[in-house]
Amino acid sequence: MILSQLTPEIMYSASGIALFGIGLLGLIIVPHIFRKILAINVMGVGVFMLLVSSAKRANLDADPVPHAMVLTGIVVAVAGTALALFLVKKIQDSESLEKSQ
Amino acid sequence: MDDITALLPAFILLPLAVSVCCLLVNNIRVCVAISIISAAALLILSASTLLAINTYEAGILRYAFAGWGQPLGIELEVSGFTALMTALTCLLVFVLSVYSSVYFSSSDKALRFWPLWWLLIAGLNALFLSSDIFNIYVAFELIGLAAVALIAIENSRPALIAALRYLLVSLLGSLCYLLAVALLYREYGTLDLAQLANITSDSASSTAALMLITVGLCLKTALFPLHFWLPAAHGGASAPVSAVLSALVVKGSFYLIARFWLDTLAPAASDAGLIILGVFGAGAILWGSVHALFASRLKVMVAYSTVAQIGYLFLLFPLMVGNSQTNAFEGAAMGAITYLIVAHATAKSAMFLAAGNIMRIAGHDNIKQLKGLVRHCPLSIFTFGIAGASLIGLPPSAGFIAKWLLLSNSITTGQWWWVIVILSGGLLAAAYVFKFLNLAFTKDDDTFNKANIVSKISPIMPLCALALALLTVVLGFNAQWLLDVSGTLVYETTGQGFTGQNLAGVAQ
Fold first, then answer.
1. How far is B146 from B126, CA to CA, in rounded Å?
2. ipTM exceeding cut-off 0.90 for this assembly
3. Chain B contacts of A98, Cβ < 8 Å?
4. Which range, of B168-177, B351-360, B491-500, averages the lowest pLDDT?
5. Is the Cβ–Cβ distance between B489 and B59 less than 8 Å?
6. Which residue of B has its CA nearest to A63?
7. Cβ contact, residue pair B134, A69, below 8 Å
């Protein structure tokens, strides 16, 4: 009964929101910094999935606007992740420099 | 009028172009020259936009990129409020660019500074001028990434850790905002702020989107108790960066919270939510002020003072509770908040620059070891005093007018309990400002004497700080002018003219 109402759009939307939730939980409770950065990426993927699934509405042709948004979002996510990884590396370098002195 | 509208993209494209130029030329003198000329050009452009919109009857200018209007294309939009914010941004950017041209001692830092600085400005202008909620997300990310990198150019371990933490908070806030954008697009099929304002209803997804936007942007605005990242980030950055972060960057996200709660998603906003935002604001005032009082470093003290001043901004929301039948993004409380934003931006940037001067002269900013400092940098201490007077709310500064408007609004709306919070916040501000001034003026038993001076500074640095501090006094003396401007300029989408008499009545 419930399964018959489970259209692909709803499934994708629900898993998008679930991914966002998983990522948020990971960001808050996991202490390791790399996992925090990964968690933010998982959250981002969740939002992108929700956006993509909203492209198909009411049997019309697919709406291109969400795709454009997801593309922009991916670029921003890559930039953010790169900056975060670089900062982590700088911090670790300064740590090992302190230890060696 | 068309001329000014056609120039609107320059607010974003010019900073982007300057950023790329600074990156390519790799020469500090050229960077400084390009930057100061461009900052002056932006200042003139923003002033003429402000004047144009003030005399323009419709009160709103829209520019459609490549002639593609909504719903398909991307538009820039200037209302009175955003014109004022852009003018404030361009004014501070000009003064801070002049300051930064002499601030950086190492050429390495300066070369990294200028491209990022202009990226940040492009993001700020894009944030204030966009009429599209997705472009606002992109502007947020541009601001976030540039701000994090600007903090990280300090290259000390604490600054790097503060930058990383700020980056994670900023990305989390942006993703919450983006999820809200996705929900709104699903429900209403448009991304335009003004269009959304006309069609939003009190649906489940509107409420969820409003919650997500509030949490995400409160993280970025550093509203208590989500302020944990701010003191280290603002206190650890170099002086011009701290100034622009405290004066403008947190205001950008506040502006959007206000716009969503009071205009775009107003049907989904509840009175209880407005009051809760006010309670967090009151918490921020008290918590931030007490921490500022006990801070041991000068810049951390100024940063905690920002936490407190953000709290005052959030008192806007409960004061709007009785106002729900009209379009609430206008009205007397909004005038008070506009004034407060301008007053705090000028005073706080002056204070951060003064603290930067002191740090450059003394080599540190440990408050207890700065006894008798006044003899060695009188101008910076003077600046700190004037800016402090504005933060406390002493007349004739702009801070006094802003607090006075807030107080009279609290009383006219019958919410006298906010008066207690505003007044005790003022007392605590007086305590931390005078605590530092008292030490700086202590004469006998100087812990700080000539031998402690690490380096001399260029006279331009204290003069820039002083110019910003004097601006708070000028704004205080010209209160009626600014109220008139913000009165005719307050944002509105419904097409009903704003009654400037409301604000004039409050001021009398």
1. 14
2. yes
3. 157
4. B491-500
5. yes
6. B189
7. yes
CB of B141 within 8 A of CB of B175? no
Listed residue (B63, B193, B81, B87) closest to B137, CA to CA? B193
Asked if pLDDT for residue B487 goes beyond 90, the answer is: no
Rounded to the nearest 10°, the torsion over CA B20, B25, B27, B32 is: -50
- Over residues B190-235, the pLDDT tens digits come to 888 888 888 888 888 899 999 999 999 999 999 988 989 999 888 8
Chain B residue at shortest CA distance from A54: B186
**pLDDT tier, B248 (very low <50, low <70, confident <90, very high otherwise):** very high
Report how far residue B174's alpha carbon sits from residue B65's, in angstroms, rounded to the nearest whole number: 25
Question: What pLDDT is recorded for position B64?
Answer: 84
pLDDT at B83 over 60: yes
- State the DSSP string of B294-312: H-SBHHHHHHHHHHHHHHH
Given CB atoms, is A36 within the 8 Å cutoff of chain B?
Answer: yes
Residue type, position B154, single letter: E
Cα–Cα distance between B337 and B346 in angstroms, integer? 14
B382 touches chain A (CB under 8 A): no
With a CB cutoff of 8 Å and minimum separation 6, the contacts of B30 are: none
Instruction: Give the predicted TM-score (pTM) of the model.
Output: 0.90
Chain centroid to Cα B228, Å, comes to 18
Question: Which of B144-176 are b and which e, b meaning 16 or more Cβ less than 10 Å from the residue's Cβ?
Answer: bbbbbbbbbbbeebebbbbbbbbbbbbbbbbbb
**What is each CA distance from B436 to A43, B298, B351, B383, B427, in whole angstroms?**
44, 8, 12, 13, 15
- Is a pLDDT exceeding 50 seen at residue B27? yes
Q: How many helices (H) and strands (E) does chain B have?
A: 22, 2
B160 touches chain A (CB under 8 A): yes
For chain B, give every domain's residue range: 2-507
The Cα B346–Cα B352 span in angstroms is: 10
Query: CA of A49: how far to CAs of A80, B45, B182, in Å?
Result: 19, 41, 10
Residues in B touching A87 (Cβ below 8 Å)? 148, 152, 160, 163-164, 167
Angle (nearest 5°) at CA B86 between B80 and B92: 135
B254 Cβ contact list (under 8 Å, min separation 6): B217, B221, B310, B313, B314, B341
CB–CB contact A88 B168 (8 Å): no
Residue B501: is its pLDDT beyond 50? no
The reported pLDDT for the residue numbered B174 is 94
What's the CA gap between A99 and A93, in Å, rounded? 10
Considering CB atoms only, which of A36, A50, A72 is closest to B179? A50
CB contact under 8 A, A84 and B168: yes
List, for residues A63-87, the tens digit of each pLDDT value. 888 888 999 999 999 999 999 999 9
Cβ pair B306, B223 in contact under 8 A: no
Q: Are B151 and B162 in contact (CB under 8 A)?
A: yes
Chain-centre distance of CA B45, in angstroms?
Answer: 20
Average pLDDT, chain B: 85
